[in-house]
Amino acid sequence: MLGTKLRQAREARGAPIQEVEWATKIKASYLEALEEEDFRALPGSVYVRGFLRTYARYLDLDPEPLITEYNSADAGANEIISTRPSVRVDRPPLVVTPAMIVGVALVLLLVVFVLYVKTQFDRYQASSAAAGSTPTAHANIISPAPSPSAPIRPSPSPTAKVYNDVELVIKIQNGPAWLQVDTDGQASGETGASGKTYQPGAVLTFTGTKSVRLISGRASNTFVTFNGQDQGALQGAGGVVDKTYTKT
Questions:
Q1: What are phi and psi of 171, to 5 degrees?
Q2: Which domain, by its residues, includes 9?
Q3: Contact 200, 96 (CB under 8 A)
Q4: CA–CA–CA angle 236, 238, 243 (5° rounding)
Q5: pLDDT digit string, tens, across residues 188-204
Q6: Which of the 8 DSSP states describes residue 56?
């Protein structure tokens, strides 16, 4: 069953539904409907085929067998069985007219427009959710000045490392996490443009001359050290965090 294949592939990657929603821009309710094969909960056959193709590519599956299986199930559900004897009706031959061609073209344009509007709306929803889950910076705590009678003059450490670039060390702990990292506006060679899922114990280092952008699908399992400073685990609503580190 295609729903079982999708669920097993997702669980093998250790990716929760919310992470797949972030990466594919498909609503979590639609993803669950695909895995349950509840096609009546989806907008229509055109959307189902598009969702199957996007979801399968994210899971590194061949989408064509899944779409073929869905087409067979959809054709069987729409088949009408009649107990009456068949009646042969002579129909006039179909004549293609210019008006018919124009009508078909208008219908196709309308379908393309609706799909475009739907895609833009889903991307807007995903962007809004990501903006709302971005962690806020903690206020700096100012330590009281030392007493004039006992001045404290810290001596510089001769072994301290000077960071001229942006260095991000990422450790995965407690469970798997999906990551996507961009350095200086370009997708890193490690995670690629579509991101990867890493298991506990993985340690990754990324360096950029200006900035390093980190997107994590499981913030509580992602621990960050920024230019030698331990930032601890990321925090974000729903477990998804999109954060950019710069030299300033």
A1: -120, 135
A2: 2-75
A3: no
A4: 35
A5: 889 888 889 999 999 99
A6: H
